[in-house]
UniProtKB/TrEMBL annotation:
<dbReference type="InterPro" id="IPR013106">
    <property type="entry name" value="Ig_V-set"/>
</dbReference>
<keyword id="KW-0472">Membrane</keyword>
<dbReference type="GO" id="GO:0005886">
    <property type="term" value="C:plasma membrane"/>
</dbReference>
<dbReference type="InterPro" id="IPR003599">
    <property type="entry name" value="Ig_sub"/>
</dbReference>
<dbReference type="GO" id="GO:0009617">
    <property type="term" value="P:response to bacterium"/>
</dbReference>
<keyword id="KW-0391">Immunity</keyword>
<dbReference type="Pfam" id="PF07686">
    <property type="entry name" value="V-set"/>
</dbReference>
<dbReference type="InterPro" id="IPR052051">
    <property type="entry name" value="TCR_complex_component"/>
</dbReference>
<dbReference type="InterPro" id="IPR007110">
    <property type="entry name" value="Ig-like_dom"/>
</dbReference>
<dbReference type="InterPro" id="IPR013783">
    <property type="entry name" value="Ig-like_fold"/>
</dbReference>
<keyword id="KW-1003">Cell membrane</keyword>
<feature type="domain" description="Ig-like">
    <location>
        <begin position="19"/>
        <end position="111"/>
    </location>
</feature>
<keyword id="KW-0325">Glycoprotein</keyword>
<dbReference type="GO" id="GO:0002376">
    <property type="term" value="P:immune system process"/>
</dbReference>
<keyword id="KW-1015">Disulfide bond</keyword>
<protein>
    <recommendedName>
        <fullName>Ig-like domain-containing protein</fullName>
    </recommendedName>
</protein>
<dbReference type="InterPro" id="IPR036179">
    <property type="entry name" value="Ig-like_dom_sf"/>
</dbReference>
Length: 275
């Protein structure tokens, strides 16, 4: 809690003296192996501030990767994949990411300025997309488990395709609106999308995927089980795990206490700062 109080106090003091940090863009998508660039513009009254770049992977704390100053304008990582350069006249620090990889470079990057106190930017989320060979889609119908039910709960599953911008999904000739999602299965990547049928009908649902505007892949009918999957059925013998429920409640309680602690620390820091 003490480190959070200290960080909040330093942040507020940095703003009070007129220092600021602005990152752009807030999100960036690039294909594996390509290059990406993140800009960090700052204002400060300090004649020689330090500038840092931090990288935060999911479920891991942020760590410092690069450090530049007015008199040390360039820095790079040991493998050469990351580099930073300061342009003092423009008050800008730019991060260059080259030879991007899925495992290492997909993360949130933070620019930090230290004139006297450390001030962080809002962060830039870098998403690295895999290089995938062209692949036509597979089309499936997800439907209620009971054959006698109407088809209002049915959905079209379009999967195993690439590239992601070359497939249009139609349910009964009505174009879907959901964007594709990148899916990983082991070491294999592909795109997929699910479109739900919102119409009440007792007629077979028709799922169509137009691939590269040249060929349609279609599934139609509710009796063919090869390309359909029964869903929304729950085994009557299903029982919840008492230990799992207790653990979930414990985690929820700890989260509530943690959020209250954060609010208390921020209020106390503001009170001390105002005094």
């Amino acid at each position: 809690m003490g480190s959070l109080r200290l960080f909040t106090g330093l942040f507020l003091l940095g703003v009070a003296v007129g220092d600021s940090v602005f990152q752009s863009p807030s999100a960036l998508q690039i294909t594996e192996g390509q290059e990406g660039s993140i800009a960090c513009n700052f204002t400060t009254s300090d004649a020689s501030p330090d500038a840092f770049w931090y990288r935060k992977h999911q479920d891991r704390p942020p760590h410092k990767i690069l450090h530049v100053t007015r008199y040390k304008e360039h820095d790079h990582s040991a493998d050469g994949g990351l580099s930073a350069a300061m342009d003092w006249d423009r008050r800008q620090v730019r991060l260059q990411v080259s030879q991007t990889s899925l495992e290492d470079d997909g993360a949130v990057y933070y620019c930090a300025l230290r004139p006297t106190k450390i001030l962080f930017g809002a962060g830039t989320r870098l998403t690295v997309l895999p290089v995938l060979p062209d692949s036509p889609p597979s089309v499936y119908l997800l439907k209620p488990a009971s054959v006698g039910e109407d088809q209002a709960g049915s959905a079209c599953l379009i999967t195993d395709f690439s590239p992601n911008d070359q497939v249009k999904v139609f349910i009964d000739n009505k174009e879907g609106q959901r964007p594709p999602t990148l899916v990983q299965s082991g070491k294999r990547w592909s795109y997929g999308v699910v479109e739900w049928n919102s119409e009440l009908t007792d007629q077979p649902v028709k799922c169509t995927a137009a691939y590269k505007d040249t060929k349609n892949y279609t599934y139609e009918g509710k009796d063919d089980v090869q390309n359909s999957c029964p869903v929304m059925s729950v085994d009557e013998s299903f029982e919840t795990d008492e230990k799992l429920n207790t653990l979930s409640l414990s985690v929820l309680g700890l989260k509530t206490i943690f959020m209250k602690s954060i609010a208390f620390n921020i209020l106390m820091t503001l009170k001390l700062w105002i005094r």
